[in-house]
Amino acid sequence: MKRFIRVMKALSDPSRVRLIKILEHKPLCVCELQNLVGLAQSTVSKHMRILEEAGLVDFNKEGSWIIYRLTRGEESEYARVMLENLQDWLSDDEILQDMIARLPQVDRERICVV
Q: How many domains does one find in the chain?
């Protein structure tokens, strides 16, 4: 029950769902995500921690950057199923469409101060 509730709570915030939908396209660092969603770095980091604890995202370090990506849901069947379903959902969200349209212009080398 705890894993199920953790996934559902993680997906109960529109910003976190948009972060998931953006990461469907490619792995990104916090400053790239921040640039796309327009939230403070600390807020994006908090959202990413919640998504990670729910088993929806994981990360690896590349130099001084922490790069987030979607998991395959190996740790949680609930996370896996929700990630699979989200692939087909929310294509009509205008805010999300705008973020995805701006994705090719997001360049961590240019926007991230290390």
A: 1
Q: Is the pTM of this model over 0.90?
A: yes
- CATH classification of the domain holding 16: 1.10.10.10
Domain that holds residue 98: 2-111
Which residues sit opposite 61 in a β-bridge? 66
Task: Tell me: pLDDT of 32 over 80.
Answer: yes
Phi-psi region of 57 (alpha: psi -120 to 50; beta: other; left: phi over 0): beta
82, 1 in Cβ contact below 8 A?
Answer: no
**Which helix (H) or strand (E) is 71 found in, with range?**
none
Asked if 30 and 44 count as a contact pair (C-beta separation under 8 A), the reply is yes
> What does DSSP assign to residue 105?
G
Q: How many Å apart are CA 4 and CA 83, to the nearest integer?
A: 13
* Residue located via tokens 């995500």: 33
Order across the sheet with 28-29: list the strands.
28-29, 65-70, 57-62
